[in-house]
Amino acid sequence: MTTELGRLIARRIALTGPISIAGFMAEALGHPRLGYYRRVLPLGASGDFTTAPEISQMFGELLGAWLADRWLVLGSPAPVRLVELGPGRGALMADALRATRGVPGFHAALDLHLVETNAPLRDAQRAALLGFTPSWHERFDDVPAGPLLLVANEFFDALPVRQFHRTAEGWRERMVGLAPDGTLRLALAPGLTPFAAALPEAAAGAEAELCEAGRALAAALGARLGRDGGWALIVDYGHDQSGLGSSLQAVRGHRGAGILDRPGETDLSTHVDFAALAAAATTAARVRAFGPVGQGDFLRRLGIAARTQSLKRQASPEQAHAIDAALARLIAPDQMGTLFRVLALGDDRSAQPAGFSDTPSDTT
Ligand SMILES: C[S@@+](CC[C@H](N)C(=O)[O-])C[C@H]1O[C@@H](n2cnc3c(N)ncnc32)[C@H](O)[C@@H]1O
């Protein structure tokens, strides 16, 4: 049994022909009424996945300190647009703001902007950020001009990708079409793909993905940073170098699912190609990419061990155990520490920001 959205997509394909995987993802995640990121509360124990800020307050606190440090390096501009892409339930931003209350002038300078398409999540963000007055936007392009501090955790992995399969004749795009019984099914497009020039050489049988939306957003972000100044921090699961392979995965209720299963009720995500994001962002003048580095190294360099100790001093034995478990989840190489990568975008004349090398930043 498919969903209402599954039937709508099937009807569209019956009328106009097969659609790309990116077209399918855009509908399944972003359909205005029935898309996954429009209607359900995907996060937390009752949702489909748990993210770093939901695991521990330390994540948002340390990212907040990083952003405040970048604000100081920028010369404390006021106002500064503090932007989060896909803030989920608002935990990261709430922790970041609480942790930076003591930075003189920082909160007075902040103009808070949240890019979020999901109405229930906007409500959760409003509740988490009581005392602040964010503006919400559907798209990053709608954030007003001015110096920027931007953070995005697990946002880019939700953007649509095209998928390709290498046959003996060349690259073919994977499409979503219809089986004889009218249900959705995957099939390769006949004929050469117009995207072949953008794909690497590979042997028959290879797979590849291309995230045009991610590249376009990174380019817009880079252009904005080059023009108005500022810093961006992008955290996600992914890889440092562009390469072959398919990473699109479907999750429903903390379990793996089929990509075409129950559109609108199933989360779809991919591993982020950080090299492609960095290349797109740094086509802008005066913008440099720092990293990516592993989330574990990044948080360790920002002092997560000391923060763990200070939280544990006021904790019961059970709480202390939970704090240690959260620390391990965030930084252990076999958990989120290595798979999750952290990329910063900022001024190409700047020294390495905190977290990107073991040498303390000389600007802090
Ligand atoms: C995987 S969740 C991550 C949430 C949060 N950053 C965290 O770490 O807990 C993805 C977030 O991005 C939002 N989102 C997904 N696609 C979006 C899009 N195209 N435009 C704006 N927001 C989007 C979702 O509603 C959600 O808030």
Tell me what the structure shows.
With 364 residues, this protein is α/β, with parallel strands linked by helices. It is built from 13 helices and 16 strands. It has helices at 4-16, 21-30, 36-39, 52-55, 57-73, 91-99, 106-109, 119-128, 212-228, 274-281, 295-301, 304-313, 317-331, and strands spanning 19-20, 80-85, 110-115, 135-137, 148-153, 162-167, 170-178, 184-188, 207-210, 230-239, 249-252, 255-257, 267-269, 272-273, 287-294, 340-347. Strands 2, 3, 4, 5, 10, 14, 15 and 16 form an eight-stranded mixed β-sheet that branches. Strands 1, 6, 7, 8 and 9 form a five-stranded antiparallel β-sheet that branches. Strands 12-11-13 form a three-stranded antiparallel β-sheet. The model has no long low-confidence stretch (mean pLDDT 93). It binds S-adenosylmethionine.
Give the CATH level 1 class. Answer: Alpha Beta
Q: How many distinct helices?
A: 13
CATH topology: Rossmann fold
CATH architecture: 3-Layer(aba) Sandwich
**Overall number of strands:** 16
**Could you state the order of secondary-structure elements as H and E?**
HEHHHHEHHEHEEEEEEHEEEEEHEHHHE
Mean pLDDT: 93
Helical amount? 25-40%
Class per helix and strand makeup: alpha/beta
Intertermini distance: 57 Å
Ligands in the structure?
A: S-adenosylmethionine
Secondary structure layout:
Layout: H1 4-16, E1 19-20, H2 21-30, H3 36-39, H4 52-55, H5 57-73, E2 80-85, H6 91-99, H7 106-109, E3 110-115, H8 119-128, E4 135-137, E5 148-153, E6 162-167, E7 170-178, E8 184-188, E9 207-210, H9 212-228, E10 230-239, E11 249-252, E12 255-257, E13 267-269, E14 272-273, H10 274-281, E15 287-294, H11 295-301, H12 304-313, H13 317-331, E16 340-347
Parallel strand pairs: 2-3, 2-5, 3-4, 5-10, 10-14
Antiparallel strand pairs: 1-7, 6-7, 6-9, 7-8, 10-16, 11-12, 11-13, 15-16
The structure holds S-adenosylmethionine.
S-adenosylmethionine binds at residues 30, 37, 43, 51, 53-54, 86-88, 92, 115-118, 121, 153-155, 158.
